[in-house]
Amino acid sequence: MKQWKLFTIVGFFFVLICGTLLHFVYEWTNQCYVTGLFAPVNESVWEHMKLVFFPMLFYSVIAIWRIKERHSCVISGLCFGILVGTWCIPALYYAYTFILGRNVFFLDLTIFVISAGIAFYLTGKLALSCRLQPYTVLLCCLVCVLFVCFLVFSYHPPALSIFAEP
Question: What is the pTM of this model?
Answer without folding.
Answer: 0.94
